[in-house]
Amino acid sequence: MSHQVRAVVALGKGAPVSLETIVVPDPGPGEALVKVEACGVCHTDLHYREGGIGDDFPFLLGHEAAGVVESVGEGVTEVVPGDFVILNWRAVCGQCRACLRGRPWYCFATHNATQKMTLTDGTELSPALGIGAFAEKTLVAAGQCTKVDPTVAPQVAGLLGCGVMAGIGAAINTGNVGRGDTVAVIGCGGVGAAAIAGSHLAGAAKVIAVDIDPRKLDTAEKLGATHTVNSRQTDPVEAIRELTGGFGADVVIEAVGRPETYKQAFYARDLAGTVVLVGVPTPEMKLELPLLDVFGRGGSLKSSWYGDCLPSRDFPMLIDLYLQGRLNLDAFVTETIALDEVEKAFERMHHGDVLRSVVVL
Ligand code: APR
Ligand code: ZN
Ligand code: ZN
What pLDDT is recorded for position 275? Predict the structure, then answer.
């Protein structure tokens, strides 16, 4: 059997997305069919639409989602129908060299559903990040479903599926921010704001937010930033040093993805400090740094992929902390929208008007 549902599809490069009827197969072995309840709009969806992530059109967009498992295929033990789940785009394999060494958050062989979702004429869809959740139902690998406390609203839970998890994880997993650390975050969009919330949650003594947009600095303060720097007006490296006794921050998180902001992060950290790159650069970007500074300043330069998260470990824990009132996830949901408003949400995202627009189904 299969299901016909409405979904947001990018049919061709650069063209506005459209609402299409798609065909979703019943789950086969290892797969789960999920009734999507909410899905956030992420930059990556826009990159797909613009042809920046390959040519495999049509793309079924959406990947920051939460919903309820409707049915599961043969051999699935992770989830059962009725479970409230957050979808992740890194279902770990348990068998690759990273998994076998006990580091599954680095899994090098993550997987997705085997069967294809299609348009009604049979054209196969490429689901964004192996999810495709701007749809009333989607088909994923069962390991892409992480069960969490169902009392949380789906538009909040879904945030952890991508950008917000990337930011929180950049702080608490990759940056290893702990009690008493000084942290600076450069770029306070959805990802950077989450890095601020994560640093606050981890007990950082100072959290310095840097952005060129004063609206983002206001939100950063609500999420736990102790200081803000408008880097259009003030040199951020000097400002961060001044705020940290002249030394620099223990951890600097770059959440823009540009060489000039990476350099700021590099020079704004204390000796033996850590730089975490969570912003995603484009292929043509190059970085030039005196190698002697890389050596002489010590410490570590890291990049953070999906916040180095392990969904089964991190999603339920963060939802529990949210429900205890210790992690403000509500602040990330700027607006909830309908399935046919994704194109409009891209526009608002492009203008920096939102942290997240979330489609509620
Ligand atoms: N200095 C400081 N902040 C900057 C600069 C700059 N030179 N240029 C842009 N910014 C700020 C923007 O004002 C915005 O607040 O960086 C923020 C980027 O945020 P968003 O556009 O909302 O992007 P976000 O979803 O947070 O993702 C950030 O991580 O996942 C990647 O592809 C994503 O590279 C992007 C980055
Ligand atoms: Zn693996
Ligand atoms: Zn995303």
Answer: 98
Q: What is the dihedral of CA 226, 201, 79, 139, to 10 degrees?
A: 20
**Ligand 1, pocket-test mutation among 159, 185, 191, most atoms within 8 A of CB:** 191
The pLDDT assigned to 242 comes to 98
Provide block-wise average pLDDT over 10 residues at a time, the chain (361 residues): 96 95 98 98 95 95 98 97 97 96 96 97 97 98 98 98 97 98 97 98 98 97 98 98 98 98 98 97 95 96 97 98 97 97 96 95 96
Structure confidence by residue, pLDDT tens digits, 86-104: 999 999 999 999 999 999 9
Query: Which atom of ligand 1 has the smallest separation from the CA of 188?
Result: 15
Given strand 126-127, what is the order of strands in its sheet?
118-119, 18-25, 2-10, 59-60, 126-127
Torsion of CA 331, 211, 194, 278, to 10 degrees: 150
Q: What pLDDT does 257 receive? A: 97
246, with CB counted inside 10 A (0-12, 13-18, 19+), is exposed
Q: Which of 89, 211, 216 to mutate to test the pocket of ligand 1 (most atoms within 8 A of CB)?
A: 211
The CATH architecture that domain 2-161+328-360 belongs to is: Alpha-Beta Complex (3.90)
Q: How far is it, in rounded angstroms, from Cα 208 to Cα 258?
A: 19
Q: What are the structural domain ranges in the chain?
A: 2-161+328-360, 171-304
Q: What is the pTM of this model?
A: 0.96
The CATH architecture annotation of domain 171-304 reads 3-Layer(aba) Sandwich (3.40)
Confidence at residue 1, expressed as pLDDT on a 0 to 100 scale: 86
The pLDDT assigned to 272 comes to 97
Tell me, in angstroms, the distance from the centre of ligand 2 to residue 75's CA. 19
Q: How far is the CA of 361 from the centre of ligand 1 (A)?
A: 28
Per DSSP, what are the bridge partners of residue 66?
A: 38, 86
Q: How many angstroms separate the alpha carbon of residue 98 from the centre of ligand 2?
A: 6
DSSP letter, residue 94: S
Strands lying side by side in the sheet with 182-186: 227-230, 206-211, 182-186, 249-254, 269-277, 300-303
The verdict on the CB of residue 231 being under 6 Å from ligand 1 is yes
